[in-house]
Amino acid sequence: MKTFSAKPAEVRRSWYVIDAAGQPVGRVAMRAAVLLRGKHKAEYTSHIDTGDHVVVINAARAVFTGKKDVTKTYMRYSGFIGGHHSDTVREVREKKPAFLIEHAVKGMIPHNRLGRRVFQKLHVYPGPEHPHAAQQPLAAPNS
Fold first, then answer.
1. How far is Cα 86 from Cα 119, in angstroms, rounded to an integer?
2. Rg of the chain taking only CA atoms, in angstroms
3. Is residue 60 part of a domain?
4. How far apart are the C-alpha atoms of 31 and 101, rounded to whole Å?
5. What are phi and psi of 139, to 5 degrees?
6. Does any domain span residue 117?
7. Best CA proximity match to 68, nearest among 85, 88, 95, 96
8. Per-residue pLDDT reduced to its tens digit, 41-56
9. Is residue 84 assigned to a domain?
């Protein structure tokens, strides 16, 4: 018996929708990462992109547990002197609510060429509307 390895040309891709309203950010990100990688499929191969497209709606209404709204910070550095910036979850949610989900998912996928390609299939929208109705996305399975 030989080990099965998926071929990129034979991978069938689906579209899934995840509603993040009222759900913890980590739980939404975990479900999205599993679907993006293709780990829910029987033909999953670790070095091949076997994943599906994921649309996350209502990203602005995703929640954090505990006191993370005020204590958790997102830091960035411009590279210049005095260019360190730090924002709380509330500040980030006001500016870019999709960033919260994107940042969490990016940490759960590989940090290499495969991960960058997988991440391109993630589509995050702060409200309930999305422009992917033509792809007929399905409700994401509970992983």
1. 24
2. 17
3. yes
4. 11
5. -70, 135
6. yes
7. 88
8. 999 999 999 999 999 9
9. no
The alpha carbon dihedral of 83, 104, 114, 15 has a sign of negative
- Predicted TM-score of the model (pTM): 0.92
Q: How far apart, in Å, are the Cα atoms of 41 and each of 34, 54, 138?
A: 10, 15, 15
Is residue 38 within 8 Å of residue 77, measured between CB atoms? no
First-to-last C-alpha distance (Å) of the chain: 30
Is 129 a domain residue?
yes
Q: Which domain holds residue 46?
A: 14-64+97-139
Number of domains in the chain: 1
Contact indicator for 88, 99 with CB cutoff of 8 Å: no
Residue 42 near residue 28, CB atoms below 8 Å: no
CB 8 within 8 A of CB 48: yes
**Per-residue pLDDT tens over the stretch 22-31:** 999 999 999 9
Contacts for 136 with CB less than 8 Å, ≥ 6 apart: 15
Q: Which two tokens stand for residue 62?
A: 């995703």
